[in-house]
Amino acid sequence: MAPKYDLFINNEWVAPETGEWISVENPATKETVGQAARGGEADLDRAVAAAKAAFPAWSRKTATERADYVHALKDLVKRDKEKLAEIITSEMGKPLKEARVEVDFAIGLLRFAAENTLRLQGEIIPGSTPDEKILIDRVPLGVIGAITAWNFPLALCARKIGPAIAAGNTIVVKPHELTPLASLHLAKLVEEAKIPKGVVNIVTGDGPEVGVPLVAHPDVKLITMTGSTPAGKKIMAAAAETLKEVRLELGGKAPFLVMEDADLEKAAEAAVQSRFMNTGQVCTCNERTYIHEAVYDEFVQKVRQKIADLKVGLPTDPETDMGPKVSEDELKKVHEMVEKAVRQGAKLETGGKRLTGGVYDKGYFYAPTLLTNVSQDMDIVHNEVFGPVMSLIKVKDFDQALAWANDCRYGLSAYLFTKDLGRILRMTRELEFGEVYVNRPGGEAPQGFHHGYKESGLGGEDGQHGLEAYVQTKTIYLNV
Ligand SMILES: NC(=O)C1=CN([C@@H]2O[C@H](COP(=O)(O)OP(=O)(O)OC[C@H]3O[C@@H](n4cnc5c(N)ncnc54)[C@H](O)[C@@H]3O)[C@@H](O)[C@H]2O)C=CC1
Ligand SMILES: O=C(O)[C@@H](O)[C@@H]1OC[C@H](O)[C@H]1O
């Protein structure tokens, strides 16, 4: 039977004040796989009050004590890896093998937070008199508000909960309304790990009813959000009312540069993987592939074959490489973008349509799509597709590739395939992206730093820099 979840507030499961629940749909079958409470503002207020009440005791625990709790949570996630992967797949549609990778990533994020909270060091600097010392301490902020997207239902939650609580804060999480189930299972593990009440609270519901009051709440000190650029801008503007810090992980439009000296086989493999992983629904996906004209034809041949080899099907089938889009709306958005690109002169090599027949009729399956003859002025080169559509653009040299890569309002990830160290060094200076993959496919590490420039966001997450986002400095002029 599909599970029905209440809200997780103060380590208790409480019914929403709205008296309503959201049905969560499997995008591969349209079956209901669970129900999550439709929270409202009063629920959110209760959750923030619980988090605020929990803060003094939690922040007074030693870093080691907090780390032990986060380790315990991580161990339970590890224990439930298969169960969590199944939940992710059922609510989001990514192939089970990718869902397992997501669980491993969540484990890595929790592990990093637990292992590194003792490294949140302060500073001692000379005072203004011989007897004075100035201490710059690092202290937690208080209640954190976290808002997540649907493409990584578990990892995005872990990415925010781990460092926030390890650093001594308490947290209220609003998962995406399409995919709340993995985070609710995580809430059960928070309970089992005996993390004290009120430290982690999960309020499900949609953006206007839970997200908006979370951002507006005066007792919430920092908002960390993953999602679209338009929503991120609204959140930033709303947070200004209470002068809250915001950390925003937003859209991307990653360029993938393939130069004439690249290992073409590896580049083609990585380009396809980085485009079609999670059905193209990752902010770091290869959204536009720039290929040097000397190797363009050979590269097209290689990616055409690799795309033809992709098996689209039920995400629970071990043979499946690519599952459905997450929703009907998302599928339509992608299809309209492809149609527009073709109207603007792109050549549709393969795909470009919804898949039908057999299992496809039940879900939101879109054919892996290849567009050639794409030019820099087309809309598809500038707007985030977030779907299984590969756009190939021919460039005459590295200068043109760099210029076109930077001709973009986003600045999260980029890819470069070349053996030329001079080009690699030049790219480090000139490419306007916060995360660059050189001669490898995408996929960030928990110890790295996931940070977008321009309209891709603000602040960044992961690693030591990401952990430090959850503390503020306190300057103490110490005189005895
Ligand atoms: N950065 C990324 O990795 C992601 C980017 N996207 C992009 O966003 C597009 C739309 O996806 P959506 O799910 O509609 O994203 P969205 O940005 O609307 O939703 C993300 C989260 O923000 C919440 N939210 C939305 N508006 C809010 C507001 N004003 N105040 C507080 N919370 C708010 C939502 O309830 C959800 O939990 C996708 O097609 C894709 O292009 C989607 C998912 C992840
Ligand atoms: O939201 C996104 O798409 C990214 O932040 C994504 O989250 C987990 C993946 O590893 C990231 O690329």
Brief overview:
By secondary structure, this protein is α/β, with parallel strands linked by helices. It is built from 14 helices and 23 strands. The strands form 6 sheets. The chain has a 7-stranded mixed beta sheet, sandwiched between helices. A 6-stranded mixed beta sheet has the order 10-9-8-11-12-22, with helices on both faces. It has a 3-stranded mixed beta sheet with strand order 1-5-4, with helices on one face.
Describe what this molecule looks like in 3D:
- The protein has about 475 residues and is α/β, with parallel strands linked by helices.
- It is built from 14 helices and 23 strands.
- The mean pLDDT is about 100.
- Helices cover about 40% and strands about 20% of the residues.
- Helix 3 (about 80-90) crosses helix 4 and helix 3 (about 80-90) packs antiparallel against helix 6.
- Ligand LXHUK7UM binds near residues 105 and 282.
